[in-house]
Amino acid sequence: MKVVLLGAALLFSAAAASAQKEQPLPKDLPPFGQEKPLQAPTVKESKLENGLTVWLVPQPAFPKVSFSIAVAGGYTADPKDLPGLSDLISATIDQGTKSRNARQIAEALQSAGGDLSANAGKEGFYITSSVLSSKSADGLSVLADVLQNAAFPDNEVALAKRNLASSLEAQEANPQFLASRAMAKVLYGDSPYSVISATKESLAAMAPANLRSEYARRFRPDRALVVVVGDFSADKMLATIKEKFDAWRSPEEAAISVPPPSDAGPEHAIFFISRADSVQTTLSLAAFGPKRTDSDYEAAVVANTIYGGSFGSRLTSNIREDKGYTYTPGSNFSASRVTGTIHTSADVRNAVTGPALNEIFYELNRLATTSPTEREMSQAKRFLIGIKAIQLQIHSAVASELSNLWIQHLPASEIGDYGKKISAVTAADVTSVGQKYFPAARVAVVAVGQENVVRGQLALFGLPIKPAP
């Protein structure tokens, strides 16, 4: 059946091949300039006696300092009966400490020229702040207080629960959120990696006591990183960090260990979520890709950019520019320490639900069966390196990038190696990862829309059609 589907997708889309032929650039456009290597920042690494890792990036000139603190253990470390607890921890961690209330925390940071934000990911927490260089010690004092002494006041937790419940209700009216939540279950089953948010039931069950116990268990210096980027003296900043965090101690119990999810591919089937009276179908396709530490990670990044990860991609050219099936199609390749996924999404009119899925299958199989052109390779690599170079002009982006690398167990030097590895990717590398990760027969499909439309138009693909988990 897989071979038949591969052949069918290519056959049904034969006409699309001519539409995908490269069009020459206008003659009056100047040629590309010489490609410049990515200029990565220099990171000064150290570790305190209590196990806290410190990465400093002095960049004098602009008088601001950006902090990013990463703590291992996000959604995947939440108690099984309280999925999404990390969202509530993030929403309330700055709402009071043993010595400051929420207003005092906000005012202290404002007087330093900044504020604080916290969010949770699958594998970690991230707390960030940017302040004036002259007030960096004051800003760090507040961050250190929050990291070591968060109190989770009952009234603030109650308010945050109401806000998160309202936000979840709004999200559940969004078909893309519904598709993402269902796809996480399709890919990861009962693994903690299937959690992308809290549920109504888990939110209702969460209490301040849960937050305090999880905070005490997870927020520990031997599982944390402090990144500082901006205008400061490295020696003075390190001394200040030692002063503010020296008393922080890890609990005696071992740190949380989360088992990796199964690497078995998802079922090649169509999972639907019925959405009555919907005028369009939200299509979500996903398959496993390389992990962040795999040797073919960068090749997969380039391959995904050619396939659907940029506005000039094959997928956008096909189902947006050529056929007008959708306005914002695209693909996203996300990789973490233990898993990676290649995810395609498109909101399409009901009438073209089947044809749109057919073209997505075609483009996946085309990447799996044909080599990229020299122009596609050049454009993809220039795009990726250029975007990263722009991002790394911002202190807060550098701090966040380093925090993500640490959570994924990668060295600080990876921030500089990334551009070199992208530049070194060859057409043969892209062909190899295309064959390995992109065949349409590897993907699971989630469709959110009218059930009669989904069943009527997608039955022709010969795949099982079943309710989403």
Commentary on this structure:
By secondary structure, the chain is of the alpha+beta class. It folds into two domains: 44-245, Metalloenzyme, LuxS/M16 peptidase-like (Cytochrome Bc1 Complex, Chain A, domain 1); 263-467, 2-Layer Sandwich (Cytochrome Bc1 Complex, Chain A, domain 1). The protein is 44% helix and 17% strand. It has 18 helices and twelve strands. It has helices spanning 2-12, 14-19, 85-92, 102-111, 136-149, 154-171, 175-188, 200-205, 208-218, 234-245, 297-307, 314-322, 353-369, 374-391, 395-407, 414-424, 427-437, 451-458; strands spanning 44-47, 53-58, 64-72, 116-120, 124-132, 224-230, 270-274, 280-288, 330-335, 340-349, 444-449, 465-467. The protein has a six-stranded mixed β-sheet with strand order 1-2-6-3-5-4, with helices on both faces. Strands 9-10-8-11-7-12 form a six-stranded mixed β-sheet, with helices on both faces. It is globular and about 65 Å long. Residues 1-21 have low confidence and may be disordered.
